[in-house]
Amino acid sequence: MKQIKKTHAFSLLLAICANTSYAGFTADGNVSLRSHWIDRDQENQSSPYSGVDKDHEFTGHLNTLWEYTPYQVLSSQLGVAVRRTDLGDPRKGTRVSRANIKYTDGVAALPYVIETGDFFAQHSSRSLRRNLKGAQIEFQPQTETRQSIQILAGLDSNEWDTAGDASRYLALSWLAEAEHFGAFTLGHVFSEDSDHASEQRTTAFAWNNSTSFAENQHHIEWEAEWLHHGNEKNAGNGAFASIASRLWQGKTRLQLAYELYDNDFNPRGGVTGGGQRRWDASLYQRTAFGNFNASYNQLNFFAGRSEDTSTQIGYSHRFFQRVNLNVNMGKRENSSPFGDNKNRSLNADVSWSINDYHALQLSSSQSEDTYTSNFSGGDSRNKTKRQDITIGFRSVGNLWNGQWSLAPKLSWRESTSDTSRSEEVSPGISLGFRHSRHDLQLNYDNSQSEIDNDGFADARTKNYRLNARYSYQQERTRWSIELGQFVSNGNFVDELTEDTLLLSVDHRFQYRDSTTTNPQAALQHEFSPVDPLLALTHLVGSGEFAVAQAVILSANPASQINAANRSVYTGQFLPGEFEQQTLEIERRHGQLAEVRWSIDLQGKSPQEVERIFERTRTQLYANLGEPTRREEFGSIASLANGELNKAVNSTSLLRLNEWRINGNTLRFGIPRSLDGEAKLRIYFQPNFSNGLEDSWG
What we know:
Layout: H1 9-18, E1 24-40, E2 54-69, E3 72-85, E4 93-105, E5 112-124, E6 128-139, E7 146-156, E8 167-178, E9 182-192, E10 199-213, E11 216-229, E12 235-247, E13 252-261, E14 276-287, E15 290-301, E16 306-319, E17 323-336, E18 339-353, E19 358-373, E20 380-399, E21 402-416, E22 420-435, E23 438-453, E24 459-474, E25 477-490, E26 496-512, H2 532-536, H3 545-553, E27 559-563, E28 566-571, E29 581-588, E30 591-600, H4 606-624, E31 629-633, H5 644-649, E32 654-661, E33 664-669, E34 679-685
Antiparallel strand pairs: 1-2, 1-26, 2-3, 3-4, 4-5, 5-6, 6-7, 7-8, 8-9, 9-10, 10-11, 11-12, 12-13, 13-14, 14-15, 15-16, 16-17, 17-18, 18-19, 19-20, 20-21, 21-22, 22-23, 23-24, 24-25, 25-26, 27-28, 28-29, 29-30, 30-34, 31-32, 32-33, 33-34
């Protein structure tokens, strides 16, 4: 069975139906209850729960599937949330978080799928890529050339009670795919803002194709778009092109991408801003002497006459089968009429897998930032240097038919500028124990910093964080308790103590007719080793750890670190995503137990974050279909630079998508984390340690 490469979900759904023989009724879902208490005198910025006081929430999700025949399927999704909080959160009270009904008829004279409620419109990231509330219908004429016609109408709103005040969309697209010529798409989007004051019409033409010759694989994409502002005379144009090649049996991988949008190209439903030009290039080369990778990115903004250019070069190699070396050098320059900023960085880490149970890792980084201001009052220059050294050890073992883990670490950081010097020492330790239904995790870290300022009094600060989490799994019910303490003090700051308590219970239910089989099982044939992240979803819980490692190595990762019962890789593991990605897999009893994927979002603008998020979500929706649950709140694009971490930790920004695959859970989004740094994450494991929608990272 060959998967249609375009993102139309109907093609995938029909392929699944055509390769399974089942009939009957299926229902599954979950109900969860959480209570979160914070005891504090003042706000403690070292806590990841800044902005939260008292929060209690009940959520329920129900998914149903009526399978009349293998080709006629009716499905529905319903999510309800009841939230009580002391904060002025618009999500207080009772609300419908998701509602969707979909019917597929693959045996009609003209096969179709019709969907209403919450759905994902994915025409193009440049014209329309939004979660909408409304309806869409898709037809697939039965011709020698694969065709799909899609019509949709929807409102751009996260909440049902405010949908009437949201922007409106009406769109039409046509897809045609031939075996040797690739896929062609023609689409048109009409949109109107909530005040009916502004109209836009966007037309897009796209082509993509995968070819193979001389044992080399190539994927080409091209797209051109035209935008007309209904109430204005001006119009905008945009273009995108990319090529990805795997050469010489995968030893060489090359990716090139180019984007160009004029000042008037700012489609309402897209995630790409106007007035910019972007170049992306990456190269990976595997040799007998090690693996080399390089990347180049250039972004120009026409209106502000600014330019951002970055270059990365890396080298990795494995010595003696147990020692891994990774070295990365980077340079980034940003120039604008206001000033110029230059950054130089060097990172290196060495990991030694002593045996299957013990591993040692040493990492070091150096960076230098130079900022020159160009204001009329005269040029000013400021230089900052930073050095980081971290040494860590990880050990795992078996105890009482369970598995324990121990991971101490010690970090040192020094930062100097023209007017100050700071030094920070941070010891920490993590303990874990898993046994049958029990899961216990302990985390502690302590940081002591000294800041010497020229002409000012020196500052001394101490922070420590202690977090303990215990969960108990009883069949389909998981009980969790989490305790945390965050303390800060110094010579200029009174001691601030914050105590946290989280209680949660999550119950999953499932009903199946005796004649019903899981339709998700057909997905295992959809992925190839070229898509390692998606291929791993069928190995969790039952696949051998060595097989999972082989799947990842087939994608030629840029670096690899083996640490006791886990392996960590960097590279590009999700197709269509150009950002550097981290992929971590964990072993338990010789099998693949967990998969964790992430992209670091630190230092990226809100526009970059939204573009990366939407691009990644599109890949998952195209391969996995609509999620079984989705929680979304707040706007990424409306954030100012540097506000992402605060927005995520205060729950004013929430992104969560969840799929159930072969009895396991895949989560994608931007969750809270104990270190307070927001990352784009995909976690896939049998069960999460808690049912909290915002702190699973």
